[in-house]
Amino acid sequence: MNQIQKFQASSPGLLPRPPPGWQRLPRPNKHVSRRAALSAVAFEQDQSKVHGGRLLSRLLISKSNIALDFTRFFQTNIQYTEVFQMIAKNYNATSLDSKRVTVLYARYSTDMQNEQSCEDQIRQIRQYLDREGIDHTNAEVITDEGLSGTREDRPGFQKLLKLIKRGLVALLVVDELSRLTRANNATNVIEDIKFYQGRFIACGESIDSTNVGWEMATTFKQMSNKASVAETARRVRRGKEGRVRAGLSAGDLPFGYKSFYVDGDPMEQYARGQKPRKGIKIDESQAAVVREAFALFVGGKSLAGIAREFTRRKIPRGNRVKDTNWSHQQVRRLLVNSKYIGIWQYGVTTTIRDSAGNKRQVKTDPSEHVIMKRPEARIIDDSTWNAACERFRTLEGKFGFKPSQDKRGPRSHPSDVYPQDILSGLITCGCGAKMHQAGHKKYPYYICPIAKKNDERCDMHAYVPAELARTRVVAVVLDELKNEPSFYEEIHHEVKAYLERVYAKTPSDQARIDAAIAECQRAKNKLIKVLEYEGAHDIGAILERIKTLSSQIQELERERANADARKSVLNRFPSPEWIQSQLLNTAELFESESPESMLLLRKLIKTITAEPVLAVAKKRGFMRLRFDFNRYAAFVNALEQSDCGQLTASMLESETFEGPASKSFSVDLGKPTKVDEWGPKIVQMRDSGMKWADIAKISGMTIGNLYSYYKRYKNGIEGSSNDASVRRAETDSNSADDLLNTT
């Protein structure tokens, strides 16, 4: 099929058939563009008397290229003005109208679901046109089946709009205006038809764009149709709410449930004109998947991991879904659905539409919510549900959006919570920016993102070698965990002494709590007697007071339980030897480079500052890492492994116990070069009057190298003496006389 045949097949009626023999015209190329083919049709249609400019705009052909297309297609030289003269010759309006079409449009919506509706509408339209004497023999029929009139993305409606914009609709006929659209754009569509000298008829409502007053009739009908949509939505919502309150199905069945007919044979009820009622019951095959999803999530598996597992096992996603590709969004919706614990909510959200018919879900007022308890439909127990909610709160605290901002990013970067490297996200440049890993896989390094952009805020020219930095930092951590038992014994002594002071206050705290509980209980009993015997008038205030006292009693009882737990902590507190053994186990985690060590390092070392160590007159040197090792955090991590560790750690945190100060470390990832070491010595010896030959004997270098080192160092002294932004290499301070004596 050639280009023109394809165009005529995809767009029937837009172009007449070319005369016989046009394909026998010589062509310079076997492959002709679509535009060239259309230009050839326009050239062959000289007998059609169509205006050139109108035809070109209809075919989307530019004037600047039409002559070139003719030349390529016919192997001849011709100007586009000559083409216009040939095409526009003997132009008249009648020939233009002969290219336009009559369109019959029909639609039925999803609430009708009658497949014969479109055929019935077209039949009514044709009968109306016959009575009016309007020819519809070659009319084009466009339909939209099962689509709401509030939507503008209907395929048939979009095709109709394209014909209208091209000026090819001479007459558009619908049964009712609501069949064309139920939005606020009916008047706009009709005005576009009239702009191209077309006509619109709604035969069932006697609306004709050629009659006076069609605008007012269309506007009133448009308002009525839109109000009808809102009223239908209100009635549907009312009916569904009634079914929810009656414990029946309202079509809101999530994964794990299925419906059943409540009143026997549904066909008999349909025959009586009644809609059968449906109940809800658990689908055990799907409920098992729901329970497994909750168990995996509570056990620590991620949402994406659960989705991958269900997809791998090809678990069906529902009765109406064919594929088995689970997504983390679907798993999340499943894990936060309160229907699985027997709490069914209806009316929490509603659907709104914009002028183009696009839909969006928004939350409704809490007064419109319907909440029903269905214990018979429970799939998940309370403990599992609470554990899942607690994990969601934990994830929200880590990855949720920052407060008081409009989606400006998570509270913590995912690489800080799930690091891919033991030092990723820890190394910070002197300018304050976090350094990221770059370079080849075999030779990775950390670089400042600001310095990489040649920003004036950072003049970092050196890189941090990743493997060397990891080796040196881990070596410091291992040395602290293995070889400092005396320091951790001191921490153990301070913490135990603090717990003894807390334990000494426990009896007085218990007495105070017991007295407060007794006082609240007496006041509560008095108020209950007032309600029983004296018939108080302000019953609401008394009940509110009783509720407040009950809450105070519960809070005091929790405080007393915590005080009782404190008593057992001191007796079960581990010994220093046990703490030291746990520190050795922690060291083994770092030696094996386990994933746990990556997260633990972020507790022990909050941040690592990288700074360049530069010699005089040099822009690059080696890197120095400075960080503080939190020994108290290492002690608490070891303590948490004991049977009373979690309770002890929470006590220390609640009592705002301040641990010992951290220890600072400085790690060099290189050393000064030979030039850096000998530069100041050469200057010192030369300034003292020593000859070059003597300096060469001492250093073992040639006089040429000595002079170049002397020149570089001498010229760089003034430029670097006042520069306090970088660290300078530490060199040997021996004098020239000492060097001579040691030679």
What does this structure look like?
By secondary structure, the chain is of the alpha/beta class. The protein is 52% helix and 12% strand. The strands form six sheets. The chain has a five-stranded mixed sheet, sandwiched between helices. α26 packs across α28. It is flat and about 125 Å long.
Write the layout of secondary structure elements.
Blueprint (H helix, E strand, L loop, with lengths): L2 H8 L23 H11 L7 H8 L3 H12 L5 H8 L5 H5 L3 E8 L8 H16 L7 E6 L9 H11 L3 E6 L2 H4 L5 H10 L3 E4 L4 E2 L5 H32 L11 E5 L4 H6 L6 E5 L1 H15 L4 H10 L15 H8 L7 E4 L2 E5 L5 E5 L6 E4 L8 H18 L14 H4 L9 E3 L6 E4 L4 E4 L1 H4 L11 E2 H18 L1 H50 L4 H33 L4 H17 L2 H10 L3 E7 L7 E8 L1 H9 L5 H10 L8 E6 L5 H14 L4 H8 L3 H19 L5 E2 L7 H7 L1
Parallel strand pairs: 1-2, 1-3, 3-4, 12-16, 16-19
Antiparallel strand pairs: 4-5, 6-7, 8-11, 9-10, 13-14, 14-15, 16-17, 17-18
Helix pairs in contact: 2-4, 13-16, 14-15, 19-22, 20-21, 22-24, 26-28
Structural key phrases:
743 residues; disordered C terminus; alpha/beta; 5-stranded mixed beta sheet
